[in-house]
Input
Amino acid sequence: MKSLLTTSFAVLVLGVASAHAQTPPPAWQGSVTITKLAGGAACDNVGVSVGSLAVSIYRPHFTTGGPAGLAILTLRSGAVILDNTGTHTTLNGTTTYDGYALTGRASVSVYNGTSNFTVKPGPANLKPTTKQVTITGTISNFFDNTGCTATIEGSYFLRP
Output
């Protein structure tokens, strides 16, 4: 399980090429703001609050590099990586994910949930050379907290 987390983290965050690809898959880097946390007490231990800003990496799946993914990194809470397990290769729409949470105290958990994102430009216009992408939407079971749903807004620029 640790090797899966390490591999996912390296591919999403560091832009390391997969064993089958000659070059890293295209990725966009930027920031994401938590605009809402819904779920009451279920959100008490997520370590972020409304208005929190985090560094983030977005990687859709084009033809190489594995599943689409989204990484959200915060200094206080740790990191969460969402690997798409559904059919939406750009994460646009409602889809399922496997989540990997690394807390600020170095504990790791693996969980799953659903996300519902609007990615702009939309899937038909998103290309490996698109300069800027925005993502808005929700993530259920945020940071492995069952019943906590985070609403996010993110802006990303193509990583060189």
Q: What stands out?
A: The helical segments are 2-14.
